[in-house]
Design goal:
single chain; 399 residues; alpha+beta; nine-stranded mixed β-sheet; 12 helices; 18 strands; 32% helix; globular; binds adenosine-5'-diphosphate; binds magnesium ion; Kinesin-like protein
Length: 399
């Protein structure tokens, strides 16, 4: 047999769960009945976490060092399949929602990974876009590039904001942003260095999490948003230099709160309506829609070598593992429909409570490199993505 196991996960063969509804994300939402309904609060739809894999091209170092070797992965975007080489003869095959090879443009990546989420957020849902992968595989390239020198290079953060600005009316609506770093279980405000220990507050009744200490900046144009990202990046760099660490060790979290006033008639009436509606002609008061978009550039997923570390380095190694491994544990628990999901084990999982197993529309991009020398890390990244594909959220507009 040319190909080894299909859908192997750890040791056992697995059912290709994703085949069941691999195209569900786009087609299910936004459902037109939700747009028409005035009682959207009690309408919820299932929405599986959607997972794309992005492969970065070989870099200069790999061009030389790996010159005599094949890439460790082969992407088959039209089949939505990825082959991970096991050895010279065998490979394992995995299915994903989207495969983005080294030629995929930033525009395409935005359209596939983030645009459906941004559209939902504009309708009042919560949404999450997250990048997971080994350091150097393109998480920040995918999410955070500003595109100063070349606008086609801009990443998901800037493109999301452009899309939102184009679709809201700043007379009645608002877009406000917070930008944070989570490092060693401490949340730092990237927009105000004095706020270096922000706490998470959970609403007793709704269970919603918020960060009341974080700076919130209202955005009215793209340029001020790009400046805000630049300030945040500089602050991230400064904080990391002070702490003598690298940004690859921390998680960067951008939150965009969207408040929209949707006119009652717009909300009730849809051109595709299959029932004759007279509501479009009657006055309905405006409805406030509040959506939240969270974009997370996670710390590098590579295993931190604890053996050689001492003191601060060891603490850091443990702490990095704490947040990311807590995320992995939550995703495993949700993928297996386990009764207990250990959300409270880390700040990252508390912050992302709504993103996995919650009401958010969630899109994950896992980034990988081609080098056969990093096959083991690439494999573990792919398995993380496979498990995330099994997580079902219940999308719901909160009012
Ligand atoms: P990470 O944030 O995962 O550590 P980066 O986004 O910083 O990785 O990317 C590492 C390097 O690879 C950077 O120099 C970046 O410009 C380059 N790179 C990443 N993805 C791509 C891509 N798809 N195409 C071209 N270069 C890329
Ligand atoms: Mg990075």
């Amino acid at each position: 047999m040319a190909s080894g196991g299909i859908y192997r996960n750890g040791g056992g063969l697995q059912k290709p769960q994703n085949l069941r509804n691999s195209s569900s994300f786009k087609s299910k939402l936004p459902p037109s009945n939700l747009r028409r309904s005035t009682t959207t609060t009690d309408t919820a739809v299932s929405g599986r976490v959607r997972v794309a894999v992005r492969l970065r091209p070989r870099n200069d170092e790999e061009m030389v060092a790996d010159a005599d070797f094949a890439d460790c992965v082969e992407l088959q975007p039209e089949l939505k399949r990825l082959k991970l080489r096991r050895n010279n003869w065998d490979s394992d095959t995995y299915e994903f929602d989207e495969l983005l090879n080294e030629f995929a443009s930033q525009k395409r990546v935005y359209e596939v990974v983030a645009k459906p989420v941004v559209e939902s957020v504009l309708e009042g849902y919560n949404g999450t876009v997250m990048a997971y992968g080994q350091t150097g595989t393109g998480k920040t390239y995918t999410l955070g590039r500003l595109g100063d020198e070349d606008t086609s290079a801009r990443g998901i953060m800037v493109r999301s904001m452009e899309d939102m600005l184009a679709n809201v009316s700043l007379q009645t609506d608002s877009l406000s942003v917070s930008y944070l770093q989570l490092y060693m279980e401490t949340i730092q405000d990237l927009l105000n260095p004095a706020n270096d220990n922000i706490s998470i507050v959970e609403d007793q009744k709704s269970g919603d999490v918020s960060l009341p200490g974080a700076t919130v900046v209202e955005i009215r144009d793209k340029q001020s948003f790009v400046e805000l990202l630049r300030v945040g990046e500089a602050q991230r760099f400064a904080a990391n230099t002070k702490l003598n660490t690298e940004s690859s060790r921390s998680h960067a979290i951008l939150m965009v709160q969207v408040k929209r006033s949707v006119s009652g008639s717009e909300n009730d009436y849809s051109a595709e309506s299959d029932t004759p509606s007279s509501r479009g002609n009657t006055y309905s008061p405006p409805i406030l829609r509040k959506g939240k978009l969270v974009i997370v550039d996670l710390a590098g997923s590579e295993r931190v070598n604890k053996s050689g570390s001492e003191g601060h380095m060891l603490e850091e190694a443990k702490s990095i593992n704490l947040s990311l491994s807590a995320l992995g544990k939550c995703i495993n628990a949700l993928a297996e429909n386990s009764a207990h999901v250990p959300v409270r084990d880390s700040k990252l999982t508390r912050l992302l409570k709504d993103s996995f197993g919650g009401t958010s529309r969630t899109s994950l991009v896992v980034t990988i490199g081609p080098s056969p020398r990093h096959r083991a890390e690439t494999s573990s990244t792919i398995l993380f993505g496979q498990r995330a594909m099994k997580v079902e959220n219940m999308l719901r507009i909160k009012e």
